[in-house]
Amino acid sequence: MWHFLGHFITITKHRNEVIRLCFKAGIGLQGLFHDLSKYSPTEFLPGVKFYTGKESPNNGERRFYGYSRAWMHHKGRNKHHFEYWYDYDLVTKQLVPVDMPDRYIKEMFCDRVAASKIYNGKSYSQKDPFLYLTKSSAREKMTDSTYRKLFFLLNMLGEKGERETLAFIRKAKRLPLE
Entry's InterPro entries (predicted)? Predict the structure, then answer.
């Protein structure tokens, strides 16, 4: 029962924070649909089974099975994840990243900020989402354009704060590369 409640509360708090941020970023309607697939049995049940409260349950599922079925389901239905934006290149015959539309980069920004707030709790700093990005291998997995736009927004958050960054996002027709 603890895992059920813990997981439900965590994903709901995260989703509510993303919705709040999306409204402030000018993409409120998009925010209302954020991560609804997490409540589907394919994602929710493994989330309950592998819930620890310290990390994503997807990591526990990966350790147990060698992969996360919940994550594969999630990334294939949620366009704010850069992993959604892969396609087959006819020339190289490889899977390659594709540029993300700005509206989904904006949502990805909100998602990463909310995740840092939920997982870091009272120790959250506005630099946390930027530090998480720069320590990850995401740069090699996104197009240069997508990475640079996300980098710009998360860096702005760390330097200028949430209010100014969200106001910038709300006004931006196109996100800058730097």
Answer: DUF5662
